Amino acid sequence: MDLRTKNKRLGEILREMDEVIVAFSAGIDSTFVLARALEELGDKVLAVTAASETFPERELNEAIELAQKVGARHEVIQIKEMENPNFVANNPDRCYHCKTGLYSSLTQLAKERQIPWILDGANMDDLGDYRPGRRAAKEYEIRSVLQEADLYKEELRQLAREMGLPNWDKPSFACLSSRIPYGNIITMEKVEQLDRGEEALRKMGFRQLRIRHHDTIARIEVPREEFALVLQMADQITEVLKGEGFAYVTLDLQGYRSGSMNETLLKVL
Ligand code: NMN
């Protein structure tokens, strides 16, 4: 299927739904779903963003601004994943527990408002990674319309660009817990360390990046093309991350790759 046909198919899928809630994080995937749903269903679309302790305020503000820009009705609900011991334990099924909390809140809201469908932004690329949250999506009958229309990340970025969405090339972010190895508990201290550390690196000019939190070691992932910039900024990066409490600051020679914390799981399987 070519891109135009896929986008047309997405439109058909959306039109059949009548009224929807879009689980909207301000990432490009859910922004694109929201914008296309608005095109097809107009005011029958409600964007809902889940604010939580581990969702940086910067991202929440971005969601509020973006929803306004695309002209969506928008509500923010509070999720308290840090109160869920199954989330804090950070076992490999962490995302399942987080998404269960999110989807049960969204399902309750949908019931109250009599809205038949909840949409998320999962795309075709997500099928290639370990995603325990998908089980929760299935259990709550969340519709992943980008997958239904066979859309991959690069494709939806292209369509988002053509639509003039301001965040069409926004780097993938994911929840900050994705930086903490499985089995190491999630604490607000670690989440805040990572948030401040990554923000400092963004200010130095890095876009797509992760700081993986291995107790006393910070393992930086950036695309290999940006290794030169890491060396150039080595002193500043070291100072910032040591200031955040890391004893050692390292660069991962494989470079940035989403899902790198799952590599240890694959060895066990
Ligand atoms: O890009 P990074 O920081 O590696 O984060 C991606 C990881 O975050 C995934 O490999 C997965 O472990 C987790 N994640 C899970 C879901 C899900 O279960 N639905 C969604 C997004 C991210």
Automatic annotation (TrEMBL):
Residues 17-82 form the NAD/GMP synthase domain. It holds the Pfam family NAD_synthase. One of its GO terms (molecular function) is transferase activity. The keyword Transferase applies. It comes from the Bacteria. Keywords: Transferase. InterPro entries: LarE (IPR005232), NAD/GMP_synthase (IPR022310), Ni-pincer_cofactor_biosynth (IPR052188), Rossmann-like_a/b/a_fold (IPR014729). The keyword Signal does not apply. PANTHER family: EXSB FAMILY PROTEIN, NAD_GMP SYNTHASE DOMAIN-CONTAINING PROTEIN. This is ATP-dependent sacrificial sulfur transferase LarE. It comes from Effusibacillus consociatus.
